[in-house]
Amino acid sequence: LADGGAKGVKRSGARAVHRTVARAQVHGMLHVARKKLESYSVVLASQSPRRKELLTSLGVTFETIVSRFDEDLDKSKFPDAADYAAETAFHKVADVAKMINEDADRVSKGRYLIIGSDTVVDLDGEVMEKPATEEHAFEMLSKLSGNTHRVHTGVAVCLLDPSKQGEARSFTTKCSETTSVTFSDLPESVIQAYIASGEPMDKAGSYGIQGAGGSMVSGITGCYYNVMGLPLNRLSKLLIEVLGAEEEG
Asked: Which DSSP category does 97 fall into?
């Protein structure tokens, strides 16, 4: 699953920014929206290397501004984990939009399209995020062993024009994608060795399907990239929808 900063850790006001060097050629489903995308400065509201890699694979030119949102919403107030993930993604892009609006150097530099996401593991209603300790990781992986869980990734997109005022300044929408993942039965020694590798410690559910954790997965139903942290098909359809709706409006 997508890796990044630890949940619950308050981030400093300093922005972590990643910029691509040259404008890439947008391809895949987003090819139909390439001209509209070029009219925006695209921002990824995440420091996850995996999400950067996946967005780059679509040929999108973007920069990264890491959200300061603490990701501490009350899970009990959401009907399910997918809604929780979507709302967390919404808050991430809202925070980055606020940062852009407060940056005088950016206000006059055109329009922005901000993408945010959040991934959680859901085992029979128990939401698993990033482990706090190795013991916590062991507990999670022991529960996932031999069982089928669901991975929810919430995605939010904000269209922002800092030069405008009021409601015309921004539009934000959100959605979620769910994938079912089945684990093989894991011997305790396998779990301990995997934790010792360090791979689980910054990932929701304490595993990464794109790494050694993938060897523990016996099958999935749904989008593989969703388990990695950014559902490319759902994101592409959302961007096409949002950019098309803006043109019609």
From this structure: H
How far separated are the first and last CA of the chain, in Å rounded?
A: 36
Among 159, 9, 175, residue whose Cα is nearest residue 97: 159
Q: Which two tokens stand for residue 91?
A: 């808050």
Q: State the 10-residue block means of pLDDT for the chain, 249 residues long.
A: 49 45 71 92 94 95 94 92 97 95 86 96 95 97 98 97 81 97 98 97 95 97 97 96 65
**Residue 215 main-chain phi, psi, to 5 deg:** -70, -15
Instruction: Please provide residue 76's backbone torsions phi and psi, each rounded to the nearest 5 degrees.
Output: -65, -15
The one-letter code for the residue type at 46 is S
Contact at 8 Å (CB) between 113 and 157?
A: yes
Q: Known catalytic residues?
A: 118
DSSP string, 154-215: EEEEEEE-TTS-GGGGEEEEEEEEEEEEEEPP--HHHHHHHHHTTGGGGBGGG--TTTGGGG
Taking the C-alpha atoms of residue 143 and residue 88, their distance in angstroms, rounded to an integer, is: 24
